[in-house]
Amino acid sequence: MRIYVAGHLEDVASVQHVQSAVVAAGHDVTLDWTRGPDSAITNYATADALSIEIVEDPSPEALLAAAQIWAAATARRDGLSEPVAPERKLPGLRTALAVPGARLHLATQGDLPVGFVVLVPSGSRLELRYLGVTPSAWGDGVATQLLDHVTSCATRGGFDAAELWVLADNDRAIAVYMRAGWVLTSDTKSQIDTQRTETRLELRVGGHARRR
Q1: Contact predicate 53/108, CB 8 Å
Q2: Where are the domains of the chain?
């Protein structure tokens, strides 16, 4: 079950205590507004974001939806006038999902896919290999909810940390990650195909035994 914990902006500590109890009980916390500002928040947090549902979906339809979102999002990120065909994004997604234990989680608003993540286990860490939000939903809190979902998955799975790689010049994405509690590291690498530099971020979530 996905649960939203509302509260006054001046009572963050109490809300975080309740959120911890929710996660400990095996549920997901949606839209963790205590980590930073979000467009869905006014002076008092509201539950509008509950209209977005995030579920694990291994279906071919979900994979194609993720490819469409990734094509549109990367085109907007890179300033392209038109996105590439979604089929060109499928090989990378399939490669990530071929790793044992990898999962695709799709975010929908009503019947409309608006975002996705691909999570890949790597030893004691859970790698966020992909996070995409359809450009028309940028600024609507979808990325925040997806990152909260990632944290819940890592916590329930007993991982010590979550990590991701992002383009070093993608200031918008890095700001979103850091607002959600991720820490920028000094680790960098170059993409094989484009030679663009990526930087690594991590999120410590330890404290639980790894589920077998």
Answers
A1: yes
A2: 51-204
Helices (H), the chain: 12-24, 60-77, 90-97, 142-156, 171-179
Segments of the chain scoring below 70 in pLDDT: 1-13, 15-17, 19, 22-50, 206-212
Burial 118-147 (b: 16+ CB within 10 A, else e): bbbbeeebbbbbbbbbbeebbebbbbbbbb
Instruction: Provide the greatest CA pair distance for the chain.
Output: 48
45 by DSSP, 3-state: which? strand
User: Residue 17: what pLDDT?
Assistant: 67
Residue 144 tokens, joined:
């925040």
- Can you tell me which residue has the tokens 């890095």? 174
Alpha carbon distance 13, 150 (integer Å): 22
What's the pLDDT at 29? 60
Predicted local distance difference test score (pLDDT) of residue 191: 84
* 97-113 core/surface letters (b: 16 or more CB in 10 A; e: else): beeeebbbbbbbbeeeb
Note whether 166 and 173 are within 8 A (CB).
yes
- Choices 3.40.50.300, 3.40.630.30, 3.30.70.1400, 1.10.10.60: CATH for 51-204: 3.40.630.30
Residue 41 has what pLDDT? 34
